[in-house]
Amino acid sequence: MLREKIGIFSGNTKIEVALLGSYTLNNLMEPMWFSLVQKGFLPGIIMGQYNQYVQEILDENSEIRKANPDIIFILLDTETFLEGVLADFQNLPQEEVIESVDAKISYLKTVLSAVKSSMKSRVVISNLSLPFYSPLGLRDINSDYGVKKLVFGINGMISSLAKEFDNVTVFDFDSFASYYGKKNITDDKYWHIGRIYISNEFAAQLCSQLSQIAASYYGKAKKCLVVDLDNTLWGGVIGEEFVDGIQLGEGPLGEAYSGIQRVMLDFHNNGVILAINSKNNMEDVEPVFSHRNMVLKKDNFAAIKCNWDDKASNFLEISKELNIGLDSMAYLDDNPIERESIKSKLPQVYVIDFPEDVTGLPGVLKTLGIFDLLKISKEDKKRTQMYLEEKKRNELKEKFSSLNDYLFDLGMVLEVEKLNDGNIDRITQLINKTNQFNLRTKRYSKEEVLHFMNSRGFKVYAASLKDKFGDFGIMGVIILENKKDCWFIDAFLLSCRAMSRGVEKEFLRQALHLYRELGFSYDNGYWWLDLRKKQMENVKWIKVVLDAYN
Amino acid sequence: MPIIEEKVRKIVLDVMGMDINRIDHSKSLKDVEEWDSFNNLMVVSEIENAFGIKFTANDIYGVDTISKIMGIVAKKLEKSENKG
Questions:
Q1: What topology does CATH give the domain A224-366?
Q2: How far apart are CA B73 and CA B67, in angstroms?
Q3: Cα nearest neighbour of A193 on chain B
Q4: Are A313 and A265 in contact (CB under 8 A)?
Q5: A189 touches chain B (CB under 8 A)
Q6: Chain B contact for A49, CB < 8 A?
């Protein structure tokens, strides 16, 4: 029924997910579909049967095996997981309990191994909710051995188990359950009648958190937070009340505003790009950055638009300046009219619900989750710094009349290195998210890249770039394949920030050089590209480099 | 009563894609093909939310015809009105 209401999403990524688990999950199907659509997917969902997840994965003829979905969610509940243990906890010898727990964990290991060896799926597995009831009562937490310590230990085991598999991620279900309330998320009546563990009321929240993991896998986490200033980063209007008049850092409201800024600083430290879009005069705003309670500094913002233009057009400019799509941006503004205006003019932008009472806002931001990433590369963390360096480069560029003089003055240093354990994550990230300059746009998972590392027929090189303003880190990848009588460029891509500086040619030259040094003869071979004519036009220079090399 | 009937009809239509006006309200739901035990719970949950009432587990077990559902809703609404 929801499907008809939302309409068509042509740009969404197709994804197949399976929901499996130890309790009845049918009521999660629709909210899961809705959540995934909201995060930019076009999902197909396969539902597991009640508490059949072990069989469904181990049985080679099961529907799940046949479907081989992109992501398998395994959701567990404490009562079912510890069946037979909790009910008789006081009478069971400790050794027996530990034995039974070990057996269950090794079951899980068998399940995860089966997925790893026979399926392409990634797995998201939930940990267990720490029970609020223990038959030991007060003694539980005060003794060396109790229900809570046991479950806490099991959660540790699940985390360690997940670490053994590079395709497995743990979902912190206990944290979810605690936040929304263990008493609330389960309606006992539905649990006893139908083993429904998550009541309909909280299904959407759970699915939203689960689908954020999918979003992170697929690079669909938001990358940029655009904020208004007055009554958003501080209380009051800076143009009227000036630096001494605003509320920031002191008093209940002032604390809330500095709380907002602290969460934003956390975002910034995780690689989220911050930008300002505010109806203000820059000369009024400038002094606030030296306010004693200002958490965010001017350098934390990659782009600042303080003017009286339409906010939507400012948005477009920020998107252009930072080279990020509108669908990667979120917007925070206290003014409902501005929020509605952005919603209607730029529907791709995620507009954050601003609570009526600003003291609730830090909490809203903390549980937002839309920026969450499973992995952060060195390059992600330095993103804002890179934008600021780029600004300085552009300023320098304006001083030079010729591009060559400018490039020379930049003092660029290009280094090419082989694929290794230290750069594999960044290389995989680039392979999967680079769009603008990406010959053949081949996408490879980390496992596939690992396979290249151990295969003689493939060579993978990464280029990193430095200049006098800063370090780009790894920004280019080339994959070469040995095809009997010729060498084949399987992939060649560069982050857009490094383009149009002659870097691409230098990278290709150096990679070819390294490749030859490895002892591959290329006398009889030729480099070739399986590109269509139209694409060839844009990459003619590659052929020029290749010909010169041959 | 007609308002209750219309609301319940909409809920069942939403959850199961089935129009209850097409079946005999005293027919046992066990004999209705589209009616499965899970969806039965979903219907009850939606009814609870829509009317602001709570079924007990016993109520749910006792529900085996459409008219019984209507009866329970009406009774619960009456009770809560008397209280209010």
A1: Rossmann fold (3.40.50)
A2: 10
A3: B57
A4: no
A5: yes
A6: no
